[in-house]
Amino acid sequence: MKVIEYTFAEYTDSRELLESRPPRVIPFMVLALAGAFAYACLVQVEETVRVPGELLPSGQVQIYLPQTAVASAHPGQAVTVEFDAFPGQSFAGEVEEISDAPDEERRYAAGVALGGPLPQGARQGMTLQASLSCGRESVLRWMIEKMG
Predict the structure, then answer these.
(1) CA atoms of 94 and 74, how far apart (whole Å)
(2) Phi, psi of 76 (to 5 degrees)
(3) How many Å apart are CA 39 and CA 140, to the nearest integer?
(4) Predicted confidence (pLDDT) per residue in 88-144, tens digit
(5) Rounded distance, CA 111 to CA 131, Å?
(6) What is the structure's pLDDT at 9?
(7) pTM of the entire structure?
(8) Which residues fall within 8 angstroms of residue 6, CB to CB, at 6 or more apart?
């Protein structure tokens, strides 16, 4: 470990040298901070929630929304479905209906219609994960909420 020691005279001389030259980095730092703040205020983040579900005998997908996501979910909302049995494959669908009352685990069932045919080999009761958007918020608000 190298220890650097300055005498008071050397410290004073170097400080005067720095003060005599206007720093060129400060304007760029101010511009960068202003740009980052503007970006954080204007750009929005889409918050997505991943929820469990299953395939019903009717061929419809049923997903289970937590209380935090049910308020922003609505019929016609786009959903991406990924069956656990078919990793890497995703299927587009949309919410058809949402139950009014929660189940024992305080989740709300929502029926989802897939936009295309079921994957070959899909069986009743297969588990899945569904992703749906819960809204957008500014990057600044998102950062403040995550820090606090």
Answers:
(1) 9
(2) 95, -5
(3) 8
(4) 899 999 999 999 999 999 999 999 999 888 888 899 999 999 988 776 555 556 566
(5) 14
(6) 46
(7) 0.60
(8) 14
